[in-house]
Amino acid sequence: MTAFFTLSFVLLASPLLAFDMGQTTRCVAIPAQMTVCKGVGYSEMRLPNFLGHSNLEGEVVPRSEEWRPLLQTGCHPQAQAFFCSLIAPVCLDTFIQPCRSLCVAVRDSCAPVLACQGRPWPEALDCDQFPAEDDMCLSPQSTFKAFTKDLPKPACQNCPSVDGAPTVRTVLNAFCHYDFAVTAHLHRLRLPKGEPEMEIQGRVEFIRQGPLLPYDTQHLLQQWLLINLRCANGLVRPGRSQLYVLTGSVLPDGTLALIRVFPWHKKDANVAVAIRKWKHRRC
Question: Domains of the chain by range and CATH?
C-alpha cells in the first residue's frame, strides 16, 4: 500500500485547474476493468479527465486502481463519487466537477486515513479550487448520517499491545477490562502487483460482544485493518493467516480501539482455557 500512496501523489502533482474546460473531449464507455468506478451511477466518461489523463487503457484504468485501497477503507460514503468525478467525469453536455462542499466532506473524513499512513491530503486536491454550491456541480448527500451515527467507527490509533505468550489470568483480565473480545482470522494476501492487503477470513466469533453489532463487526474490523495498515502488517506475515483474540473498547467519540491482542496458536492452551473459564467468570 505504500506504493499506492507514492503513486497517487505523483498522479496528483499537477493542479486540477490546469485542465482546460475549452478543450475538445470525447465520450467513452467506462471499461469493466475500471473497478474503482463500478456502480458509480453512469456508464460513460469524458476523456481527457480532470486529472489530464487521455489514454484509457494505458493511463486512466491503471491509475484509477491506485485509489482502490483508500476507497476500501470506507473513509467517506461519497469518496467513490468524489474521486470518480475526477478520474471518470460523467459525460454530459457540460462539465460536472465535484462541489467544494463535497471535497471538504471527503477530505475531512479521508485525510485522517492518509495521515495514518504518513501522508497529507494532496495539495492538488485543494478544495478551494472547486465550484461553490450555487454552481452546477456534484453536491454531498447527508441522508446516510441518520443510519450510521450510532455505529462504532474505526480510526487511526497507536498499535495495540501484542502478547504472544499470555497467562490465563492476563487473558481473563483483558476480557473484563475492555468492552469487547472476539476471535478472528487475520489474513495477509498479495495483490497482483505485489502489494500486501489485509482481510478478515471467515467468521468473527464473539467472546464478549459489548457494544458491537453482529452484522457490522466483521466489516468494522476489516476497515480497521485497512486504515491501520502499519499495525496490521506487523500482525501477520505476507501470504499467511493467523487466528487472534482481539480485545478493545469503543471510545466516547464512537471510534473503535483495539487495545490488546493475543495470537491464538494451536499449541497455546492458555488462551483456550481462558475462553472456557470466561463463560463462568464474573469480573
Answer: 2-11+19-146 (1.10.2000.10), 150-278 (2.40.50)
Helix, strand, coil percent content, the chain, rounded in steps of 5: 35, 20, 40
Looking at residue 182, the DSSP 8-state letter turns out to be E
Q: How far is CA 253 from CA 38, 71, 197, in A?
A: 33, 23, 28
pLDDT per residue over 206-263, tens digit each? 999 999 999 899 999 999 999 998 899 899 887 788 999 999 999 999 999 999 999 9
Q: Can you tell me the distance from the alpha carbon of 78 to that of 80, in angstroms, rounded to the nearest whole number?
A: 5
Cβ-based neighbours of 152, under 8 Å, separated by 6 or more = 211, 212, 216, 220, 250, 254, 255, 256
Average pLDDT along the chain: 85
The residues, ordered by sequence, that sit 6+ positions from 248 with a Cβ below 8 Å of its Cβ are 160, 178, 179, 180, 256, 257, 258, 259, 260
Burial 227-258 (b: 16+ CB within 10 A, else e): bbbebbbebbeeeebbbbbbbbbbeeeeebbb
Residue 264: the pLDDT is 94
Alpha helices in the chain, H assignment, sequence order: 2-11, 61-64, 68-72, 79-87, 100-116, 145-148, 168-177, 217-227, 229-233, 269-278
